[in-house]
Write a structure and sequence with these properties.
With about 230 residues, this protein is of the alpha+beta class. The chain is about 45% helix and about 20% strand.
Amino acid sequence: MNCELISRMRLFRDVSAEEIGPMLGCLQVHERSFRKGERIVSMGDAVQAAGLVLSGEVFVEHTDVWGVRSILATVGAGNLFAEAYACVPERRSMVDVVAARDCAVLFLNVDRILRLCPSACPCHTRLVRNLLADMAEKNLNLTNKIAHTAPKSIRARVLAYLSSQAQMSGAHDFTIPFSRQELADYLNVDRSALSNELGKMQREGLMEFKKNRFSLNRTTFAIAAPPACVRARA
């Protein structure tokens, strides 16, 4: 197991590579590889361990009783998934976690993280702090997801999402982490309707795109911004 690589991941921020080896033994970790499309966690599972993505990427998905899939989050290398369920093992998973592409995952016993060792070593304390910071960021990402899917029209959802991606990248040209079907699933819209709306927006000069690469016209930002009275009430 590559302790140097793991020490650079967010969960182990400020933990040295020399401290990683003994810590991993304490956390009862095990590593597994998954092929693209393979299910890692299924809805209804009792989750015993959090997953740390070492390479590749996974989707956190929800599928309703009619078979409609919605992508709740993407989790890339260096990030955790299922940690909230692992913290409350009596709660069954309400989501599926699926390999978005071939990936390697390190599973960690969260109970071992939460139970400080008798010596309360500094590296363990840092690990708990990093876990809490990760869970807080997940809550913020969920808030973003709600903001992207709250508008009623497809265009408004697209603009809300692309505006946030442009702000995150600091540029009008950026690449999103979704294919067209995945973007439709994330925004909870029909793929054909999404493609039609994107085509209209491109013809109107609001943007240009090729696959998952987008270039936004400055006008797009003005359209996406809420009216001043709405911002004032917020």
